[in-house]
Amino acid sequence: MAVGADHSRQLHDVAAFTPLRVVYRSMPLGSGFSMHRLDLHTTAFLCSGEAEYSFGQRGDERVVVQRGQVLWMPKGTWRRGVFKASDNRFFGVQFALSPAYDCDGCDFCRQLFLGPVVTAVQDPGFVEGLFRRLHRLRGHRTPASYIESQGLLVQIVAAIVQANEKRDTPPHLLQRVREIEEYLLNHFSNPDLNVTGLAELAGWSVKHFIASFKQVTGQTPIAYLRRVRVNHALDLLAHDDLSVQEVAEMVGYRDAAYFSRIFRKSVGLPPSQVHVRGADPQ
Asked: Per the CB 3.0–4.6 Å rule, which of 88, 179, 218, 229 could disulfide with 27?
C-alpha cells in the first residue's frame, strides 16, 4: 500500500486511519495464532467459519467470533486464536492511527482503543465488500488508491460504531433479520429471490419485513441483495476465463444487460471494463 515518501507523509497527516497491511487467509480446523502482543491496531472480518480468541497474557478473557462479525484489537493487545470450523476464511487489516485523531464525544470510539471488541455489524455483506476492496488495493501505489484505502477503513470503523448505536433494536427482530441476511449470503445466486418470498421466509408481511430489514441494516432487502451480488461479481470478473454473461448468471441475473446496468450504477464502471482490467496487481 506504499506511495511516494512525500505523498505518504502528507496523506498520513490528514488521515485518521492508515492501512499498513491487508491480508486474506483461509485457515483449516484447529489452526490459529499463538499468544502474541500486537504491535499495530488490527481489525478482521470473518467471512466463514468460527474462531475462539483468548486475550491477555494469561488468556483469561475468551470470545467466540462467528461468520459476519468484525473483531477489533487495539495496539498492545495480547491475543491467541484457534479456528473451530472446517472452512475458515477472513480478511485482516493492520493500521496506524493519526496522532491528531480525537475520539472525544464518542464513548464507544474511546472504548475501541481500550481493548478488543467483537461486533455483529448491521450489514455483513457491505462490510465484507469494504474489506475485499481494501484487499484489492493493497498492491496499488497511487495517491488516489492510498486515499481510497483510508476511506474504506474509515467506513469499516463507522460500521462498527453504527452497530453499537443500534443495540436498542429488539433482539427478536435483530435475530430474524440476521437470519435473512445469512440466507441472502448463501443464496444470492438464485435469480428467483424476491421480497415476497423473503417476507414469507421471515414470517412477516411484506411491509413489516421491508421496514424491519431497513431498521437493522439501513437499506432495503433488494438494495442489500444487489450489493452482495455486485461484491461477488467483482471477484468473479477478475478471472479471464469467465464472460460477463457467465458472471451475471453466477450472481443471480439471467439478463446480462440488466446486470451491467446494476453493476455500473454501483461501481461506476461497466463489468466489461472491469473484466478487461483483470485481477488487481499484487
From this structure: 88
The grid coordinates listed for 70 are 468484525
pLDDT (tens digit per residue) in 129-161: 999 999 998 878 787 888 888 889 989 998 888
| Domain range summary for the chain, segments of one domain joined by + | 5-165, 171-277
- Residue 209: C-alpha distances to residues 89, 122, 162, 180, 277 (Å): 30, 16, 21, 10, 39
Does this model's pTM top 0.85? My answer is no
Lowest mean pLDDT among 73-77, 112-116, 151-155, 211-215: 112-116
Per DSSP, the three-state class of 15 is: coil
pLDDT tier at 264, thresholds 50, 70, 90: confident
Which phi and psi angles does 31 have, rounded to 5°?
-80, 175
Helix axes 221-236, 171-187, angle to 10 degrees: 40
**E strands of the chain, at which residues?**
17-27, 32-37, 41-48, 50-55, 61-66, 69-73, 78-83, 88-97, 117-120
More confident residue, 112 or 245: 245
User: Which residues are bridge partners to 92 per DSSP?
Assistant: 23, 44
